[in-house]
Amino acid sequence: MKKLISLMLAVLTMLGMLASCAEETPKGSSFRPFAVGGVTVTPDAEAAGIIEALGEPKAFAETGSCYGDGKDKVYQYVSYKIMTYSKAGKDYILSVEIYDDADDTVATPEGVRVGDHAETVIARHGTPSSKTDLQIVYLDAESGTKLQFLLRDGKVTNIQYLKTK
User: Fold this and answer.
1) How big is the chain by its Cα radius of gyration, in Å?
2) SS (H, E, C) 3-32
3) What is the pTM of this model?
4) Euclidean distance between the first and final Cα of the chain, in Å?
5) Could you tell me if 80 and 36 are in contact, meaning their C-beta atoms sit under 8 angstroms apart?
6) Rounded average pLDDT over 152-159
7) What is the C-alpha to C-alpha distance for residues 70 and 165, in angstroms, rounded to an integer?
8) Per-residue pLDDT reduced to its tens digit, 39-77
9) What is the enclosing helix (H) or strand (E) of 76?
């Protein structure tokens, strides 16, 4: 009987290890970080390497920081923009905003784009942390990130990844 229990525990452990290797949205999280052109953009990550890897923005602006101790910067690309804040002389990602569907390669890693229906968001991201007629919100307490889908007439008009901590 002891051998049978030991064998069953070993099999269950192996199944758990295999399941954790799957390329899915992690448990406790309903979304993965924004990625475009092979570059992952995570709120609160150091910005320098990310901005460099994304290439020249379509537009750039900076102003005194409302969030950190230096300058807030906005890098606008086709269909999305990235906002950074400064802390201790370094820039960090504050938010990513997908604002239109002009670049059809821009979407959440789960495949949601501006223009998709609210039902598509929930089908691909699962049960939201909160939902109204105007927005669907997913919170990832572990990473301190919020993924927010703004809605008009049941369709996504804007997607935002935001630092919450």
Assistant:
1) 19
2) HHHHHHHHHHHHHHHHHHCCCCCCCCCCCC
3) 0.78
4) 50
5) yes
6) 97
7) 18
8) 999 999 999 999 999 999 999 999 887 776 788 999 999
9) strand 71-77
